[in-house]
Design brief:
1 helix, 76 residues, Cytoplasmic protein, alpha+beta, 4-stranded antiparallel sheet
Length: 76
């Protein structure tokens, strides 16, 4: 499943980001973008993660995921 992120700035100042992992994530991000586009002081960048890096530990109990790092790329 793809994970979408929108990075939000206001007048060039970074405000933060929003990530969505729900099955309708692309639609959720589009809704947020549409609302932000109503005010020209907001800028946003849409990213998508289709891959991730995982740090795993293998032991007698099996394999455990210790950490995951999403790899985001800009979307058109």
């Amino acid at each position: 499943m793809k994970i979408y992120r929108i990075v939000v700035r206001q007048d060039g100042r970074l405000l933060g980001h929003f990530e969505s992992e729900v099955p309708w994530a692309q639609e959720a991000i589009s809704i947020i973008e549409a609302e932000l586009a109503k005010n020209s002081s907001f800028q946003f960048e849409r990213l998508v993660a289709e891959e991730e890096r995982r740090l795993v530990q293998a032991g007698p109990e099996g394999v455990r995921v210790l950490n995951r790092e999403l790899i985001f790329k800009p979307t058109p």
